[in-house]
Amino acid sequence: MRRPSWPSPLRLAGILAALCALVAVIVVFITVDAARVYLPILFRLLIGAVGIWSMGTVLVGLGTGKVRPMWRGISRRLRRRTEARQFWRALAWNGTLGAALLTLSFMHFGLSSSALQDRCYNQQGTVPLRQSLDACSLLIDHWTLRGSVRPADAFLARGNVYRRMGNVTHALSDYSNAIGLAPDYVAAYENRGMAYIEAGQSARGMSDFNSAILWTPDDPDLYFLRGYAYQTVLHDPKRAIADYTAALRLKPDFLGPIAQRAACYRAIGDLPHAIADLSAVIRERPDDPTLYLQRSDAYAAAGNAEWAEDDRATAARLDPSLAKAPAAGSPKGQP
Questions:
Q1: Where exactly are the structural domains of the chain?
Q2: Does the chain have fewer CB atoms within 10 Å around its N or its C terminus?
Q3: Does domain 111-202 have CATH number 3.30.450.20?
Q4: Among candidates 233, 262, 230, which has minimal Cα distance to 248?
Q5: pLDDT (tens digit, 9 = 90+) per residue, 155-184?
């Protein structure tokens, strides 16, 4: 019987160096938070590589008549002419092992595509943000999951997670990737616009709101959102009023724009329109004391002390703690 042929010292040194490099890479993936999400991908790549190697030995064996069995550390080479039985047994084993490892590399260990999507989108808010981020990254980066969800949707979802985590820079990058993949993706423009404003880049934010409205000019929510940005970020009540009015033309019963437009009218000194908008909101929300306080202040500024006092009394009746309130609060209906 032929004695095993062990690798040469040079080859052993190469194997040892490769193992050390592999351990170093694994340590980095385990210890660095930013890389940890890709650890499952690394393991699947390694499993797949060994599977391909094992299948390759089968092809080489069929071509050369020599094969190294995968069950003995590949230290011995079997020849078809002199060891036919062992040769075919090794070939069958290597093929089976290779097929099994390749199949395993394409599995997700119980995490189906739909389960990952649920974690990524996290619509109920029940999944920790870190797990939601990892799920989104797998949907984006893992080759066996590509196509299970539209890439632009996955980038948008991960951008939203980053934004909730306070990482606006990464959120902006993901929103831009989503827009690059789907230039008409209104939700991505909308969210990137809000992220730009949070980052202090109001001009870019307003540009994204404008782009979103160009794509969907019949969406009242977009006009409301841009109007709110004009009102609270750019402090331009006249443009805010124009957007709130546009939103109301598309959706007349939209209370948010009415309440916010009242504040804008008050800011520019148009008290009759401010009172009219507050009265419209009060008709729909007659039990909100802060609305009565706001209208009371508007009546007082307009010189109608009697009606101002009536509204303040109504607010105090609805909420006794507001009986001595010096000024009105902000209306409900903000985005």
A1: 9-105, 111-202
A2: N
A3: no
A4: 262
A5: 999 999 999 999 999 999 999 999 999 999
